[in-house]
Amino acid sequence: MRRVFLLANPDKLEAKRALRKVETFAASKCEVVGAAVGIDGRPAVDARADRIIVFGGDGTLIGVARSLGSDQIPLIAVNVGKLGFLAEFSVDELKTTFDQAVGDDSLCRHRMLLQVTLQHNGGVRDICVALNDCVIQAGPPFRLVQLGVAVDGEHLTTVGGDGLIVCTPSGSTAHNLSAGGPIMHPGVDAIILTPLNPHSLTHKPLVIERDSVIDITAVVVYEGTTVIVDGQVSSRLEPDDRLTVKRFAADCVLVHNPLHTNWYKLVTKLHWGRPPDYS
């Protein structure tokens, strides 16, 4: 019998209500090894679980994936948030497809994670895991920053502008999309580098292979310059700090909703490819 663990965002009343609705139903279908309200996955989740059912939104899912670290368990994400791009299931859809979602491993989709390491004065200050992206962004006084970029030990360029995005294919539809970067199918093994408002006509987004190691040096930065991981974890970037971004040792595993096509969210949520209105 498959085992599931239920986890809800504590800040969303609807998430807690949804968990209670599903808990009894799930217990009739499989073994529920635990239920918790909180998004700090590592201490809360029972390691025996074959699936974690996450109630919240995309941000909740991202937080759980990051907190699991190298101990990733397939996630079934139930959307009670707004966009619900990564959170593919509604409560009703989960009930309809429950046996498949919990029991069919062919629905598991591997999503690349990034390991972000910030070095200051020669020592490691922070290490974090990202599902979507790592963003270096200028802050007050909002002057142009300069970032040296090297890939696999070879200098690539120095970007002058508002910052730089390093993202996964999953993150290509997040900040990267707003910055003019490419949309990538989440199954593609690649990393995207997208400059933020570069003061240059030639600094365009760049797609590099998955095992690349990106080193970013803070050549010229100011007091408010910040490193932001998945829009949730932030740290100040100081002059001469070095940021290393590479593929994490484990992948996040998301369970695909069998009621949706692979392109459902892109078309219905972001309205990609919508034809002109000729009326």
Structural class: alpha+beta
Residues in helix, %: 10-25%
From the coordinates shown, what is the CATH architecture of the largest domain? Sandwich
Q: Tell me, briefly, the overall form.
A: globular
SSE order:
EHEHEHEHHEEEEEEEHEEEEEEEH
Instruction: Compute the number of structural domains.
Output: 2
Q: How many extended strands?
A: 18
Can you walk me through this structure?
The protein is α+β, with helices and mostly antiparallel strands and 279 residues long. It folds into two domains: 3-111 and 251-268, Rossmann fold (3-Layer(aba) Sandwich); 114-247, Probable inorganic polyphosphate/atp-NAD kinase, domain 2 (Tumour Suppressor Smad4, Sandwich). Helix content is 18%, strand content 37%. The chain is built from seven helices and 18 strands. The strands form four sheets. A six-stranded antiparallel sheet has the order 7-6-17-14-9-10. It has a six-stranded antiparallel sheet with strand order 13-12-11-8-15-16, with no helix packed on it. Strands 2-1-3-4 form a four-stranded parallel sheet, with helices on both faces. Strand 6 (114-120) and strand 7 (123-130) form a beta hairpin. 42% of the residues are buried. The model has no long low-confidence stretch (mean pLDDT 94).
